[in-house]
């Protein structure tokens, strides 16, 4: 997965649309949604910037729990074969796990995220990000199980793949599959620094838009 160019689509525009802390703040335009969620400081903002190739589209912070709203980005995909244009929302969800906030705030965010995930009629998939360098935390496993139990399609992306050797990437992917108890699970190793995995993710999104 070293080729960074998608065979199917390219993102030709990406823009921030809205931040929401309640339903009536969601965008009005009815577009397919692909949500991104992960533990705080997993590299979600870096991945969004890598995917869109728009620097600082999503703010990168070393402070865990920085994203405290549901953020909507409108992306425009152009298909190479027929030059068809399709728009969709990339939905950036607040990180779960550690955050510099009180328990009451964390519970409120969790309830809001859950309500969005269970009620959105245009949600195609939830991309769950995990740090490939470490054992998945209980919060990662619980989130994966919750998504599966609620019949939400989930695509696991293992971030920061450039931080370890290729041999470790393979063994750590196998370890993640074991932790999630799904041996056949597809897990995409991704490097936001090197854009490795970008072409695969773009093709995944491109296929989603034509289904």
What secondary-structure arrangement, pairings included, does this model have?
Blueprint: E1 9-20, E2 33-38, H1 44-52, E3 70-79, E4 85-92, H2 103-119, E5 123-131, H3 138-149, E6 154-159, H4 166-179, E7 187-189, H5 198-210
Parallel strand pairs: 2-4, 2-5, 5-6, 6-7
Antiparallel strand pairs: 1-3, 3-4
- Average pLDDT: 90
The gross shape turns out to be globular
Q: What is the top-level CATH class?
A: Alpha Beta
Please trace the helix and strand order, writing H or E for each element. Answer: EEHEEHEHEHEH
- Give Rg in angstroms: 16 Å
**In terms of per-residue confidence, which ranges show pLDDT below 50 for 5 or more consecutive residues?**
none
Number of domains: 1
Instruction: List how many beta strands DSSP finds.
Output: 7
What class, by secondary structure content? alpha/beta
Biggest β-sheet description? 7 strands, mixed
CATH architecture: 3-Layer(aba) Sandwich
Fill in the CATH topology: Rossmann fold
Oligomer: single chain
Strand order of the largest sheet: 1-3-4-2-5-6-7
Alpha-carbon distance between the termini?
A: 24 Å
Q: What proportion of the residues form beta strands (DSSP E)?
A: 25-35%
**CATH-level-4 superfamily name:** P-loop containing nucleotide triphosphate hydrolases
Q: Roughly what percent helix?
A: 25-40%
Number of helices: 5
Can you put this structure into words, describing what you see?
The protein is of the alpha/beta class and 211 residues long. The protein has a single domain, classed as P-loop containing nucleotide triphosphate hydrolases (Rossmann fold, 3-Layer(aba) Sandwich), CATH 3.40.50. Helices cover 31% and strands 26% of the residues. It contains 5 helices and 7 strands. Strands 1-3-4-2-5-6-7 form a 7-stranded mixed sheet, sandwiched between helices. Strand 5, helix 3 and strand 6 form a beta-alpha-beta unit. The protein starts with 8 loop residues before the first strand and ends with a helix.
